[in-house]
Amino acid sequence: MAKSAAVGVVGRTNAGKSTLVNALVGEKVSIVSPVEQTTRNTIRGIVADPRGQLTLVDTPGLHKAVGSFGRILNGMARRSAAGSDILCAVFDASRPPRMEDRGWMERVRREAPPAVVFVLNKRDLESFDPAPFREMWNDVLECAKNGFPGGRGAETPPAPVWVEAAAAEPGGADAVMDALFALAPEGEPLFPEDIVTDYPRKLAIADCIREKLLGRLRDEVPHETGVVVRDIQERPGAWDVAADIYVNRASQKPIVVGPGGSTLKNVRKKAEPELSDMFGVKVRLSLWVKVEPGWMKNGRILEEMGYAGSLR
Question: Looking at the domain 201-310, which fold is it?
Fold first, then answer.
């Protein structure tokens, strides 16, 4: 019988989770950016393979929460990990371990998910060093054994399968795929074989726009921008999409618009062909920048961005 598993892909922000999900699926289903806290929604990517089907849940990166919006994202990541057949924790092993990395290890030890894969990512970088992460896991186990704070939980936590990967490189995620299928239980597929994601199209379009915006702005205002797709007018072979880009302050609007509208033009130029390829129709974007102070605390706007379940 074929295998089927729900896989929660977790880890701290910018560890390479979205890149790994895209590599495993073989198509782009999750946005990728060098800017931290890129993924904001949980995105399901479906892997079809002769061995069976994997449903990958790409989650917001766990980070030090600042404000209510940060707490919402962290809560989404933790809830998405619960109930998975396999927990796949991704660590950026090109940099020393951080508090958030240890936090996921502590969670694994406490809650004992059915199966665990620890992915040591970015093997292709010269600074790659897996040893500190293995040492951290051993320390987590030792602290629990000796009754230190946080020591209560599962008496016998699962032994993680350690995999080194270079998710950004061709074939760099093959070992992760093998490890996941080796751990997956037998079962019927959860989704039809001909789809790669069940992510709502309005959210997918908004994510693509935000990805291009992040790539253009980098560190200027990215974490204070949000995108809502207002309308999709469908015509034979073409979609006209209207979207609003929210910023917190009036001073941020000219940065997002750019001199003579250059930033928005760049976003359209890069997003339209990608969206056209994604949906198989010609996509034309109309982008509007709106100043909405405190939009990250506005329940109506957050629901439009797909965070409805996280507000309750």
Answer: GMP Synthetase; Chain A, domain 3 (3.30.300)
